[in-house]
Specification:
Elements (H helix, E strand, L loop, with lengths): L18 E4 L11 E2 L13 E5 L1 E2 L13 E5 L2 E3 L12 E3 L4 E2 L14 E4 L21 E4 L31 E6 L9 H4 L4 E6 L14 E6 L18 E5 L21 E5 L8 E2 L15 E5 L8 E2 L15 E5 L14 E5 L18 E3 L6 E4 L5 E7 L10 E4 L5 E7 L1 H12 L7 E5 L3 H8 L9 H4 L8 E5 L20 E4 L5 E5 L12 E5 L8 E5 L7 E4 L5 E4 L12 E2 L8 E4 L1 H6 L3 H12 L5 H12 L3
Parallel strand pairs: 1-3, 2-4, 3-5, 5-7, 6-8, 7-9, 9-10, 10-11, 11-12, 12-13, 13-14, 14-15, 15-17, 16-18, 17-19, 19-20, 20-23, 22-24, 23-25, 25-26, 26-27, 27-29, 28-30, 29-31
Antiparallel strand pairs: 21-22, 30-33, 31-35, 32-33, 32-34
């Protein structure tokens, strides 16, 4: 419940009220918080549940609420919270994102606590030692980096921070949200980790989530530590679902170096800047699990300079279920190739690997995933579920797959290629042109001359044979073409000479059209064609024509809220209800959303459209002058 209350009364007389919810709208500045009077709760002694956000209050005002069981104060200015010690019956205490300086040791008297939330309390620097163990009934704990480094009993002082080892005394704890400095890690948290049902633990970094959600039940994020310290969390590995390692040193593989059990509950694995990692699974080592990553759905690999392959050694040591459920693979700045076809793959990204020459290298264990093609010497690597393919920064790439192999992506919907080698672009672009039935998003770009040379062969249009293609382009949602010096048309047709009348082509779902730095582009489509884009009128639609000095195709907006494209001059005549975009070389179009497309093209067009609406009696000579300006073609 969000509201815009600006002021509260000094007090409310509600003697039987048991629940009070006052959730204000988000305010960026704390000074916009409203004040709560010290007398506000005096006549509400029956309250059991209170939830407030974006308020300033002294917690002494709560002293009347002796039956209170739930107190939630979010984004509040609280100052001193020691008076909470009087709320003996409280079971849920949530102070997330609120401002207070200290968590006083007197709050250890709240022995009925079952949930304690201290997330992102920016002024709070520490929790006193020996307070947390007093919350013997605690079931859920959400806490930031308030723990101190490990101390011996002899050096521990009365004013020292709580130690991570104190969590082991919480026998009822089953939900843990924890941000912690790596210097505080223990050798083992086994007694507490074994009981956790949900957890989100971050070491040397902030979590990306503000709560332990059902979709992210069991997560571990670790940054900038030695791999040997990961032993602290060994009791979690058999339940772990999300694992993110950033800058972890001292491990050349994930299995078996970090875990010998296979991480078979893992759904997502993210590895970044781990300088020693050479492979994900090393089957040449002892104790390698027969089954590994059997539930893994998403794999993200970034800046792993030594990584060459997913599996070192033969796949035969692994059961067939290993890695079989991978749906998303995201690789950046890693010279890694794949030796097994991932038949469940739906999204595949390979970027910024200038030394990589081939994506797939098939080994002897891959035959069960390869289907014979029509030719005797050609086999087809089928990726039947692949919907998204993004390839960029692959300057040395030769081919997608080995010689005499052909890859198939019948379900492809989203395709991006940029800054790749000449031979690779030739192979991949020609393949995509044959797979346009499901294509929704197309991005083509390059800043190198090799790519210009390749695409010069496509200068008469990436999309050809329009009559045949039109039914297959109905799902196309985005077209991005940029940084190419040779491309002359986006849509071409080998039979354009036979066209006498306008042929209408409707792309009903296209809501992003982006053409930039295309110096040879003269037409969006052949003369004689009329393209209509109904979805370019959507609120978040994008229309950009920039750096295309030869463009002669006219873009216009009609009253039916459709954008039109024609490769010839459109004479206005009596059609003053249509506002047209310019084709002059000096003009650019950069519009986001229907209102900008309709009313914010370059100034003289806007002036024409708006002045027509403001003054329908404008003299005929002035209107004609403006029409001449709009219809000028280069």
């Amino acid at each position: 419940m969000n509201n815009n209350i600006q002021m509260l009364p000094d007090h409310l007389v509600c003697p039987k009220l048991e629940t009070l919810l006052l959730s204000r709208q988000y305010y960026y500045k704390r000074r916009d918080n409203i004040d709560v009077s010290n007398h506000f709760f005096e006549e509400m002694k029956a309250l059991k549940n209170v939830s407030l956000s974006y308020v300033d209050l002294s917690l002494k005002s709560l002293k009347f609420l002796i039956d209170l069981k739930t107190l939630e104060l979010i984004h509040c200015n609280l100052r001193d919270i020691s008076s909470l010690k009087h709320l003996a019956k409280i079971e849920i205490l949530s102070l997330g994102f609120s401002l207070f300086d200290e968590f006083p040791k007197e709050l250890g008297a709240l022995t009925e606590l079952r949930l304690l939330d201290l997330r992102d309390c920016r002024r709070l620097k520490r929790i006193p030692s020996n307070v947390i163990p007093r919350f013997s009934q605690l079931e859920e704990l959400y806490v930031g980096d308030y723990f101190g480094e490990r101390e011996d009993d002899e050096t521990s002082t009365e004013g020292s921070n709580a130690s991570l080892s104190e969590l082991n005394s919480l026998s009822s704890l089953f939900v843990l949200f924890l941000e912690i400095n790596g210097k505080c890690l223990l050798k083992d948290l086994g007694s507490i980790c074994n009981k956790l049902r949900r957890y989100d633990i971050s070491v040397n970094t902030c979590t990306e989530f503000f709560y332990v959600s059902e979709s992210r039940k069991r997560a571990l994020t670790v940054k900038d530590i030695e791999a040997a310290l990961l032993i602290t969390f060994k009791s979690l590995y058999h339940t772990l679902e999300y694992l993110c390692l950033k800058g972890v040193t001292g491990c050349d593989s994930i299995l078996p170096s970090i875990d010998k059990g296979g991480l078979n509950k893992l759904i997502s694995l993210v590895l970044e800047d781990c300088e020693d990692v050479k492979c994900i699974i090393d089957t040449t080592q002892l104790h390698v699990p027969a089954r590994a990553f059997s539930d893994l759905v998403k794999l993200s690999l970034r800046r792993l300079n030594l990584l060459r392959e997913i599996c070192c050694g033969p796949y035969e040591k692994l059961q067939s279920l290993s890695l079989e459920n991978l749906e998303t693979v995201d690789v950046a700045e890693c010279p890694v190739h794949f030796a097994r076809v991932l038949v469940q793959l739906e999204e595949f990204t390979v970027e910024n690997a200038p030394q990589l020459k081939q994506v797939f290298y098939l080994d002897n264990g891959s035959e069960e995933n390869v289907v014979a093609g029509d030719g005797k010497e050609t086999v087809v690597i089928r990726l039947p579920k692949l919907k998204v393919l993004r390839l960029g920064g692959l300057a040395s790439m030769i081919s997608f797959c080995p010689e005499n192999f052909h890859s198939s992506w019948p379900a492809l919907e989203d395709f991006t290629i940029d800054k790749c080698s000449m031979s690779f672009v030739t192979e991949v672009v020609s393949k995509v042109r044959d797979l346009q039935e499901n294509l929704r998003i197309l991005r083509i770009g390059s800043s190198n001359q090799l790519y210009d040379i390749v695409l010069s062969g496509l200068k008469d249009g990436f999309f050809k044979n329009l009559e045949e293609l039109t039914p297959r382009l109905q799902k196309l949602k985005e077209i991005f073409v940029y940084d190419n010096s040779e491309l002359e048309e986006v849509f071409g047709d080998k039979d354009v000479a036979d066209i006498m009348d306008h042929k209408e082509i409707v792309l009903p779902q296209l809501d992003d059209l982006y053409l930039e730095e295309l110096p040879s582009l003269s037409k969006f489509c052949p003369v004689g064609y009329h393209f209509i884009f109904p979805s370019l009128s959507d609120i978040m639609a994008l229309l950009v024509i920039k750096g295309c000095p030869k463009m002669s195709t006219r873009f216009s907006m009609g009253e039916e809220r459709c954008v039109h494209a024609k490769a010839e001059a459109l004479k206005m005549g009596n059609q003053d209800q249509i506002s047209e975009f310019p084709s002059e070389p000096s003009m650019e179009i950069h519009c986001v959303g229907f209102l900008e497309i309709k009313e914010s093209p370059p100034s003289r067009i806007t002036d024409f459209v708006n002045s027509t609406k403001r003054d329908s009696e404008k003299d005929e000579q002035s209107i004609n002058l403006e029409e001449e300006e709009i219809n000028t073609e280069t």
